[in-house]
Amino acid sequence: MTVTDSALARRNPTVKFALLFAVSVALLFVFDPFTSAALYVIALVAVIASSGIRPRALLLGHLPFVGVAVGLVLVNALSRPGVEVVRFGVLRVTEEGLEVGAALGLRTLVIGVLSLGFIVSTDGVRLMTSLHEHARLGLRVTYAVLAGYRTLEELPREWQLIRHAHAVRAGVDRRGRPRGGLGAFGRAAFALLVVSLRRAERLAIALESRGLGLSPRTTWRPVALTATDGVFAAGVIAVVGGVITASAAFGALRGAEVLAG
Amino acid sequence: MWKRLTLKDLVLVAVLGTVLGFLYWALVQAWTALSVLMGPAGDLAQHFLLGGWLIVAPIAVAIVRKPFVGVIAEILASIVEVVFLGSAVGPLLIVAAAIQGAGSELPFALTRYRRFGWAVYALSGLCGAGFVFFYSAFRSGWYGQDLFLLRLVVQLVSGIVLGGLLAKVVVDGLAKTGVVDNFAIGRELARKG
Amino acid sequence: MLSIEAVTVAFTRRRDPVLRDVCLDLAPGEQVLVLGSSGAGKSTLLQLVSGVIPHSVVATVDGTVTVGGVDTRDTTVVELSRTVGLLAQDPASGVCLPTVEEEVALPLENRAVDPAAISGRIDTALAAAGVGHLRERRTARLSGGEGQRVSLAAALVAEPAVLLLDEPTSMLDSAGVAAVRSAIASSVARYAPAVILVEHRLDEFAGRAGLDALPGRSIVLDAAGAVAADGPTREVLSVHGRDLIAAGCWLPLESELDAVFGGRSGAAPSHTGLSSPGVRAGLLEFAGATEIASPVLAATELAAPVLAATGLAVSRERRPRRTREPRRPRRGRDARPEPFAPVLAGVDLEVRPGEIVALLGANGAGKSTLLLTLAGLLPPAAGTVVGARPGMVFQNPEHQFVAHTVAGEIGFGLAPGPATDALVARLLDDHGLAHLAQQHPHRLSGGEKRRVSVAAMLAHGRAVLLADEPTFALDRRATIGVTSALRAAATDGTAVVFSSHDLRTVATLADRAVVIAEGGVVADGPVFDVLRDASALESASIELPALVEWLLQNAGSDAGVRRALLRLDEQVPADRPAVGQTAAVPSTVAS
């Protein structure tokens, strides 16, 4: 597959997914910048060490959630009541705002970098197979998601075709280019829905006529779940738990009460 | 009342989620340009389109007309996004999706999946946006911000228009094309003649 | 094995049943070919056997269908799949999983095949379909024809006792058709399944082996969905050949020729096709029939071109502008753009008013990309395209549809007013769509959809009309409807450029042919000169159909070839006449 081999890539996808989920939920209740900053540094090092991600991919992968993080810092700094730090005309930056903003921004970075490690080390199809095997995800749901993925792979090409097919009859602007606009987007979007739903029906018939849902069934290439995965999970939980405990011990940890000011 | 979802239903719902997710993404790309221009208020601009993210649930419910379809539609859409598009939001997106799916489905469930008028769709958009708002507000720390109320109003209106009324336009259009003839909506319309 | 007893199938939204009182018994290992015009219920018959009707598609079914002793109503499509393998229409779009090997493994996993045995069976099935080399390919990167063959492998791999094949060759070029035929033949030889085959490219499917390559038994469904004949294929085709031609079916060449010429000399039908003296004499008579005008073009050579490409290179890759693909970091290396190499380069092409140009080339040679570039929808990778803004008709008409009625579709993009209303009314009439004006475009049959898409583009009165495979997947009547419409447009002065891999249609319609292969134009000239250029056809792996080949050698003149082909098309009456509907076929063809 296109996922390159690494220590993280060899771990069970369901375990990785569950850990990512658990850490994300735990962080929902952390509202101080120090805990998140510590976790971000640890997560960054761990992902680089275990996934073999190339530095360029790591940086590019950061772009979307760094953007979100910066937005969170800005909007909180500017829109939260509290002690004023600086003022630009009508805009004022508050201490409380900066602190909450930084906490939320850093939390986004932690989840982002962990997601990145998950994504580069996990094949989506193996994850779905593993969720079926190890998390009792229903067979029909598993294959419905895979059918969704197949559709996703075809969408850019299909979308382009439809936009072209519609552009031929569209009016042209002064530079001779087909006019776009929201109406054109809507018509193309509807056409995309129609052809995709036709495809969905064919996919469902194909899956059923190939016997999906017969029992018993076998799995050609099962996903491994080993003792190492258990050690891995215990390790991650210990580190995250340790950081939060330590942060609480030093008095840095803050919860959602900071939102109320 | 309880009807099992068939593979056909599930595939339809997954494909709907994928396609609408793709279109929402395409729309957001265009919108992002605008929100960058708005500077710090750009964070607010995102709310205008939020309703577009809700639209899959009412459409799926109206076509399949079985319990939990709206919630499942949102969850499958978010799984495709998290697992295959690598959304940076991470698996928490699935939680948000389940919450808004439940909100969107609630008004239809209250009519026992029998009424599909403009009002029910509008309520669906309103509840979807409303439910998920309080979750997002907690996650993104909107509580205590000066903008709190403005955010709420913008999201609710967006929910009603894009996540409710627009869904009815789409569903009625799809019913006319015949692509959903073999689902509950098609049987219902054929029965009515 | 399989028994259909007095079955009538009706869809809720259609007044008349699709299948009427159909009876069919199939013994283990028996093969049957289903013949009938489009809309006669051939696919419905297959859906009935696979259980898709009534379990997945809503329909009322009277009578009983039993497969392997089980009533299909009392079971499910999934349970029936233990016995029945289905290759549905447009199989490429039924590919469900991201890689080829997973796709082919799925039916085996579902039947609890020992995992250790699966890999070997994947290899065998793929090799039988002629796509062994694609095993590790991502399915998103398959061409339509490759996808179709992978689907065939997935239908064959579990060795179902009943094999249902719904147009297994629709997307394939001649090499692909041969591979599919041999894959089916080898399955039949290996484990003797019962086969029901629906195929409308029968001449290509049969290949040079003729009728012997087809299933031994045939049934004919008439327009009302009733079984009009059931018997040995040779006998059915010889007795019902004329009716099938009149119904708009494609037939194997020898059956078509025997049906057209068989009774003429008073002798019994000869079943020998092109080798029969009677058929040869008949074809030569058609070729010499001077009473119909032969529209082979000569005079327009002098007119100024309306579209000219100079030094053109085309490619689908372009600078990301409005619609970029979603980021897929997961796919790492895969997502990297390959080094830039245009599909075609150095293309010089001029198109003149009233000229019909056929664009020929193998699957994947770049025909569609060239058309999109000529249409101004893709920027040229190099060189220039000069001329008026062309119109374009796409391969799948559904991609073009924007309106909720046929009339609205044809009038789309035109300024509203009495002039537009009159134009729409005229086009509806000309294209045999008047009775469908208020229908939803998506609810039409394949042939009707195609005519709507052509009419809607012609409404814009562009000087050039580009068409991507305009006769793709149509039955013969619909094909003739489309070629007539294109010819009528050319007669009115429109330049027409169309791509096709059906050389009989090309020889019937085009004035000029352009062959693309090996990244450029390998031949460009009068159509019959190009069709005689064996090396050009070979470089594009295009095989000349036996009929066209014979006519080119024997018809005496190019005009004669054209006349003979047009006369053969005349054997198919114009579209089913509806009340108040004018003929769909323009006067150049209708005698």
UniProtKB/TrEMBL annotation, chain A:
InterPro entries: ABC/ECF_trnsptr_transmembrane, ECF_transporter_component. This is Energy-coupling factor transport system permease protein. Pfam families: CbiQ. The chain crosses the membrane at residues 20-45, 57-78, 98-120, 231-253. It is found in: Membrane. CDD domains: EcfT. Its main location: membrane. It is a multi-pass membrane protein. It comes from the Bacteria. PANTHER family: SLL0384 PROTEIN (PTHR34857:SF2).
Automatic annotation (TrEMBL), chain C:
It comes from the Bacteria. One of its GO terms (molecular function) is ATP binding. Belongs to the ABC transporter superfamily. Pfam families: ABC_tran. Keywords: ATP-binding, Nucleotide-binding, Transport. Residues 314-339 are annotated as: Disordered. Residues 4-249, 321-543 form the ABC transporter domain. InterPro entries: AAA+_ATPase, ABC_transporter-like_ATP-bd, ABC_transporter-like_CS, ABC_transpr_CbiO/EcfA_su, ECF_ABC_transporter_ATP-bd, P-loop_NTPase. The keyword Transport applies. Gene3D superfamilies: P-loop containing nucleotide triphosphate hydrolases. This is Energy-coupling factor transporter ATP-binding protein EcfA2. Residues 318-331 have a biased composition (Basic residues). The keyword Nucleotide-binding applies. It comes from Conyzicola nivalis.
